[in-house]
Structures are given as structure tokens and as C-alpha cells.
Amino acid sequence: MALYHAHIKVLSRSDRNTVAALAYRSGTQLTEERTGEGFNFRNKSVEHVELLLPETSPQWAKDLQNLIEKNREKGVQKLSNIVESAEKRIDAQVYKDFEFSLPAELTVEQNKALLREFIQDQFCKRGITVLANFHNDCDVETGQKKPHCHAILLTRELAPDGLSKQKNREWNQTSLLGEWREQLAAYTNFHLQLHGYQARVDHRSYAEQGIEIEPQPKLSRSVQEMEGRIGHNAQGLKPEQYTDKAKDYQHIKLKNLYRIMKNPEVVFDIIHKSQATFMEGDIDKVLARYIDDPEVFRACQAKLKTSAELRLLRETEQGAVFTTKSMIKRELSLIDLAQSLSQTEGNKVSDQSIQNHVALYDKKYEKSGGLSSDQKRALEHLVQDKKLVAIVGYAGTGKSSILSCAQDIWQENGYAVYGLAPTGKAAQNLQNDGISSITLHKFLRQYHQGRNQFKSKSVLILDEAGMVDITRFEELFDASQKLGVKLVTVGDGKQLQPIEAGAAFRLVTKETGVATLETVIRQKQAWMKEATRNFGRGDTEKAIGSYLEKGRVILIDESIPDIQQLVAIKDYAGLVEAFNIAVRSQRLAGWTFRSDIELTPSERQIGGQKIGPWKGVEKEAGEAIANNIEHCRPHILAYKTDPYRIAESLTSDLDPAQQKLYAARMVHGWNIDSRGMQAWEFTCNPRQATMEALIKDWYQSIQAEPHKNHVLMAYTLNETEMLNKQARALRLQDGAIDKQSFTHQITRIDTDDFGDEVRTHKQRQFSKGDRLLFMKNDHGLGVRNGMVGTIEEINKTTLKVRLDAKEGEEGKIVSFASKLYPYVDLGWAINLNKQQGATNHKSFILASNHFHSNLTYVALTRHTEEASIYGTSQEFWTESVFAKQLAKGQEKLSSLDYIDSDQALKLARQESSIITEALEGVSNQLKAIHYTAKRSFTRWLGKEPTFEKIKVRETLTEAQRAHRLQDDSQIPLNSSLGTSEPPSSEPALSWKEMVADLEKKDMEKRILKSTGQTMEEYRALKNELYGISSHQNTSSPGPSWRDVLDQLVQPQRSISLSDQEATISLGGNSSEKVLDKMDYRPQFEKDVHNFTDRYNVYKKAESEGHTTEQDTLTLKKEAMALSKNENAMWYLEVRNPEMGQEIQRLAKDYNRHQALNRDSGLSR
Fold first, then answer.
1. Which residue, among 183, 181, 250, has the nearest Cα to 217 in the 3D structure?
2. What is the pLDDT of residues 1130-1164, one digit of tens each?
3. In the chain, where are the structural domains located?
């Protein structure tokens, strides 16, 4: 039964310690900065803590939000320091605590969604910053759940550099509390209704409500009877409602109706809460739950049937079975994560250790014959040096014995072993076997809170893996990857049912078999080595292509500044910076146009599209600066912004002569003193989003594997300095470096154009734990330019640094005074020129138009494990331009960008699709607003229409379908589904083969539509055409569906009579007639098969010496055209990967031929 309470209290220094109050509500240990007093409430169980911000929050607040998400305690401590420092009075009102209950009926995740939506809408949209503390308490005596939330409200608004100087007194209005209480009830009721619960809450007292029972979410019989007594209308509460329950129900129903009309695909999300696959009847059930108008019902049905999300899995006698694209992506994502982890080496044990413990356990169980051969094979599989292994342990096979033996082996080799399980009982079973265990939910919660003891020397055993759903598996794999632990997944064959959560485990086990894993590991090592060899051979573009194919090239879209918002909040510095970003962003795109690389028409078109929007931003920002010139004047000089460029942006419609004249007059009127300004640099960071993405991935990697070397790289000193600043800020927040900093002067030595030495002096802050880069050789000190170390001790004058050493060795310590050796800098990010000869575990590279093939070679060959390279899409429009730019020769000193035409076409289609979806979304929203407004108005008039009850089609549950699948004679199931027998010795299908299998079944469905035959008729015709007996051995290969289609001559049911009479005589015999066959195949498939036929003819002629140079060029030209067809290349990747690779090779040869022709033409 849902309970309601909501009240607000002021947390003031006059009656409590506000730091202690915050620590208690967040379940953390906090220290009061003013007094140094600590408050430890870690033993207080707090389910979730989250910082919720207004939409226009400054970057520092967003960074703080991310910190709280990653490390609750450090983030809340920082928040406390900021808030407490803003209050000066001894009796200051620091926070407000809005405590409210949450429905016990809802799950933890559902309650999180409820509190987020309520706080964001009711508080954050008013500009209030809230620290949400979700407590999932339980009464010890009664066992009753008492979930509730302490929403800690800040009393000051957020400012660019902290909190506002004045408190917002409008938030103290008494009426707001009443509004919040009322809205809380509405939001709670909505979420209860959304998740199908009957409970309701009301913010009013029972006396105010005039009823004696709890609110119900649905129209129960008692509600209908009450309506009947009052309004003499016991049929569905229409057109007028009298009770609060009925009114609340109608309000919520109308809100849900609006949501579904606005976005019909939310129905798929609702279905996926309980099942991964569904039938049309399942869609109808959800729609009927929220829609009573048959016309709207049918319209939503039609939209869902044509949704781009919907994917047909199979046709059955009972109807079609569907899933969604999102669900397929989640499953493939799970497989990708499994592949990644299973390909990673780690936690190796000695062979001697294995032999010794197998002998010990043989002796231990000698009465029963020792360990079985199955157990020994499973044991060898478990302890192999891979980060992910999986075993299927059936009942009575000695799973506990081999887990205990494996634990002994791991511990002897220096690894700690822990158990995980989806339930408390399963975790206790592992505990009884001597394996320290916790539930999977607790492990994931601690991981997300930044509280865990698991490192790369840990082994995690997940028991009952078949009970874990896809979402939890993804979270577990992600955590394992970041922590660097070894993960062993163990499942029971009884749980490998297609309708249960064990389906995720089945997907994983298909990728972690011994044979497959060995092969996959070798391929991983091979591609990196082959890429390095290609770099060495000078085939840079091919080497970059390997990293593109592996997803190691990340291109980021930079956000366009909101000029109106900057003006509204009077952020004049941000306004000038936005102007600079617009100018620099146009220059980034312009570099490529001015480069020597060959651009395709589509690439040029995309490049032009990159410049256009920023021209608009430049003009809009210029106008805003001109209108606020008094406020912007100091920032124009500070950001080194050319005032003439601002003026010219306002006079762009004039001819050049007039433009210069009017611009000069305008600048003179602005009274900007630019004397002493050497160059207009337009100070800004046009790669801000790209750097943030790079830093985020680097930080996650270094958090997961802190013992490894993770290096940030950039080309320019300015970029390196910005990356160092951001990286150091993150390491300060997580406590990796000491918070006490010391300022030292550093010196950088460069040479000018004339060879003269130029010394640049800067002040830099350093702390214990900082990475330090040495920038000058000093034999007495024993350091060389480019060496890196970690500061172990520091004070105002000296630094003590431990230098990096080879793996397994301890680096030496050097001490020096910064006044005597000032040639150091922060070493989190390093300039590429200093990376020659260096070796890192992982590299994170910021690409720019300064790159050329040699720099690319250095950047992408420093790592031993992984390398990722990041660029802005404003600078590198497509992957083809990216590759071309990074592969240009060293002698070409102009800056360039890189990406390929296939990706460009893909992006163009995505953009078109996004536009289409956006327009459709706007259309749906307008229709929803119009319809729900009309319904609200007619209900207010008491004239709401009545509708006939919607009939929902009968459908099978997912469990029923799973049972029938095993006996489905139309399309046989994979033998591993729904069986407790040991798996087949045949290799499991890969996910690509599974997709190909699904596609083949979809093709069979198309054939049926083309021939007009049912499945049984089709099979009978197939048998008749090829003389196959129904008793014949079905294991022998039969005719393909293409062969059957080619020989089917029965008239099409969809063809008109005149079409049926149209025949073709064969060999002059009019009695032998066939119909023109309908070509059901999509165009891309036709193109693939046509090219394959021509290719085979060409290869045969080539072997006989009958081909010409023109024949070869024509074939390559056709391959080039086909390589741009994304659907065709995906089809080939699944069906004929060898042909796909051959097409790419021919296309590349054609591009080279064209480039040579152009070069020779230019030389002439």
C-alpha cells in the first residue's frame, strides 16, 4: 500500500551542524573545512545519491555532478565545501531538506526515475540545485519497506564561478510548498499507474478528501459503484466524474494518452520491461491499457507497425514474432563486450601449480575415482590467462569441486578470489564452498559508488549466471573491463531457457568457447602488429583503416553556442568566446579545402555544411557584442578578438570596399584600444567537446587499471597544456594527488626562426602524486628530455620524483630544486614530439590538422595494449577525410582532416533519417497536444464522448512461444535452446551467422509473398520439384530457396488475369510457357549478385588471357560504386566477407589510378 508524506525543514547552523546533517542524509564521511571536525555516517544505508542541476548550469557544476556519480563521498565533500564557504553568518540557513516518501510497490530503479522526474520538473526548472538522497529503509519489526528521499535544496543559485552572492528569496514562498506537495502526489500516482499498480496517494488529509479508503490507481468496482450512486452512470465514468479517484484516473489516463500519441514507440519500452520478444497482441494490450478511442488506437497501431524500431524475427502459425532494433543492439553490445573481455589476457597461473592441485584434488576424491575428465578440462579452461571464461555446470558434475580447486590455484599465484550471485541464497552457497561472496546487485552498487576492493589481481566468479539479465550482464562486463578483474561466469543448464534471463548467458557462452577464444585472441594481436607493419612500410592509410575498423577513431561533434542564452544571463565573456569559437571552427573546416588531399564531391558537400552554421553563429554573436559593446569591450581584448572581424560580420551584405569602410567606422566608434596587441589569436577552445570525451575515456581507463601507464598525447603545446589542466583536476577530485599544491616557476626553451634561444617562464602548480615531465637533459641529475616520473615529495623549493621504469622494476628517485632545474611541466599529457621511443600501456591521442604520416606513426605505435585517437568532426568531416589527412606525407606542411566516402554516405543518410524522425516527432506532438486539449475541454464541458470497448487480439505469452519453438516444424530451433543435455561438439554459431540465419528466414517469408504459397504448399512444391520424399533423410542438403523460386511456375495470386496470360515461348514450342517471375530481392542484393557474376566472368577471362586494361578499369570502377553502398557491404560482410574485401581492394586500386591520372595531368 502506497503511503504519502512530504514536509520541508530548514538546515540551519543555529540548531545543528549542517555538514553532519548532509553526511547523515548522504551516508558519507564528511569533514567540516572550518573546524576540521569529521562526521562518519558510512554505516547509514543510502541506496543512491545524485546531484540534479538546472538546465543552464555552469560547467563546474556538471563536473561536480559527474564526480558524485563516480565517487559519492568525494563529490559530496566538494559540494559541502562550496556551499559552506558561501555562508558567512554563524546562524546561516545553509540548506532546505524536502523529505518525501516513495511508493513501496515500485522497484529501486522505478523510484529513482520517479524522484528524478519530480525534482527536475519542480525544483531544477526553477533554478534550484538539489542533492537527491534515496533511502530504501525497511522496518526491522514489521518488515515494511519505507523508501523515501531527502532532497537537499541549495538556497543560492549557481554562478559561473561558484554560488550567487544573494539567496533567492522567491524560493521561500509558502505557496510553493503546497504546490510541491500536490505535484508530488500527481507524479507518484502517474508512476504507479505507469507500472500497473493499483495504489494511489493523495496530498490532502483524509478529512479534506472526504473518503475513508486509500486511492486506487485503476477503475475498481468500488469506484464505479460510487460513481453510479452519485451520477447515475456506472458505465465507465463518462462523460462526467464526481469522485477524486475517478478524476485522478482520468487525469493520469489523459497524460499517458498524450505520451503515447507523442511517441508511440514508448510502447516497445513498456513491453521490454518484461520480455525481449513480442507479438502483435502484446502491442495491442499495452495500447488498450492507455487508449480508449478506437480511431487513436488504430492510428498508433499503424505507426508502430511501420516503426523503424520494429524488427520481424519469425512468422509462425500463431502470428508474427517481433523484437526491436534497440533490443538487438543491446544483445549485440553484450556480445561485443564479451568478445572484448575474452580476448584480453590476464591473471595467468603457472602450469606447475595446475598440475600440483589437480593431483591434490585427485587424491582428495580418490574414493570416487578422482576428478573426472570433464572436470579437468573445465578446470584448465577456468584458469587459463583470459579475463573472461565461462562454464556450464550441470547438477551433479562437481562444479563446486573445480571452483574450489581453481580458487586454490589462483590464490597460490597471488590472486584474490570473490564470488558473485544474482540472489542471496546463491551467494551463500558460494560462501559455504569457501569463496567469499556478495550479491551481484551489491557489487554493482559499490562499483557505481566508487567503493570496491577489486583490482586487476582479483578473480570474480559469477554463479547462476543464467539468471542474470542483459542489462546486469552489460554492467558487470563494463565494470570488469574497467577494474581489470578476471571474470568467470558459471551457469546451470536448467536455466538456459530461451524465455528466461539466461538468454543473455547463452549469448555470452557462444563467444567464450575455448576454440573460438584462442582464435579471436590471435586475431587481436595480429591486427595491431599488422597495422604497425603498414605504418613502417609507409602504407599509413591502410594502417589507419585498421583503427577505423576497430572503432579506435572517435569523431566528436562540437556543440553550437546558444547566443540568446548568453545574452540573457549576461555572460559577456562567454559571448566573445562564442564569437571566437565560430571563427576558429570555420577555419578548422577551411583547412581541409585548402589542403592537397583529394576530396570527393560528397566530402566537399559535407565540408560546406560544416561551415554554414558557424557563419550564422559568428553573425549572431557579432550583433550581440555590438549591442552590448560597453560590457564586451574588456573581453574583446582579453580573448584577443579582432574587432574588425566583428564589424565585418555585421556588414557582410555590402561589397568589400564599403564593408571595410563601415567596419573601420564601427570599430572607431567602439573605442577599443588595441595598441600593443601583436596578433589576434581568437582565444578559445574549438575542440572542447572532443577534449572532454578524450579526458573522460582516459579517466575511466586509468580508474579501471591504475597500475598501468595511460598517456594523453597532443601536437601543440596549447592543446597539451589544456589536457594537463583537465586531467589534473580529475585526479585532484578523486584523491590520486594531494590537495595541497605548491607553485613553482617552470621554464621552457625554444628557438625562434633565426635559431636564437627563447625562454618562456610560467607559474605552475604541482602536488604530491602529480605526473612530471622533464624537458631538458641533465647528466648530473640523471634525467633526459622526455622522461616522466611521479612526484613523491614536494615543498616550496624542492621536488622528489620517482622516475618511470620498465615493467617489474622500481624507478630511481631524483631530487632537485626548481630554481636550479626549472625545465619541468605536468606530465599527464605529453607533446607528441617527446613520445618518440616511448612505450605506454594505453594511448589517448588528440588529432589535429597538424598531423602527417610520421606523427601518426609515432602516435599509434606507442601503446602495448590499446590506442584511441580523437578528433572533432568540424575538423575531420568524415572517416575518409580523417584517413587522408593523417596519411599525408611529411613534406606537405599544410594542416588537413581525414574520413572516407562510405562513412560520409552513411552520415548523410543518418542525418536525413534524423530529420525525418524529428519532423515526425513534431507532427506527433502537435497531434497529441490537439487531441488531448480537445478531450480536456470536452470533459470540462461534460460532453466527453463514449467509445466502444477495444478488442485486443489474442496472443501467446513468451513462455508459450518458447515451448512451441521446440516442436516448430517450420523453422527448427538451435539444438542448444531449451535443453539440459550437454552442448553439441559442433562449434557454436557466431552472432554474424545468427544474423545471417535470421535474414535467410526473412527471405523465405518474402518468397512466400512472391509465390502466393503457404509454408506447407511451398515445402510440398519444393519436394515435388526435387523428388524429395517426406521420409527422406532431412540432414542431406536440399535445394536452396533461390533454386525453388527460380523453378516455381504457379501463377502469382497478386498478378492480374492479363498478366497471367502473358507468356514466353521457349524453343518455338508454345506449350512450354513460364511466367515472368517477380524479383522480390532488394536493390542492394541485386547489385551484389550482378557484380559477383561479372567478377566471376572477368576472373575466368583473365585466367585465359582474354582481358584488357579497360576491362580491369571497368571492373574496378563498378567495385568503387558498390563499396559506397552501406547495405550491400553489410550484406557481403555477413554472406560473403571474402568478396567484400575484394571489392574494397578493387575500389582502392581505382582511387589510386584516378589520383595518378590527375597528378600526371597537372605535371603536363
1. 250
2. 777 767 878 888 998 998 888 888 877 765 554 44
3. 6-209, 247-343, 345-521, 563-593+612-670, 687-887, 1083-1159
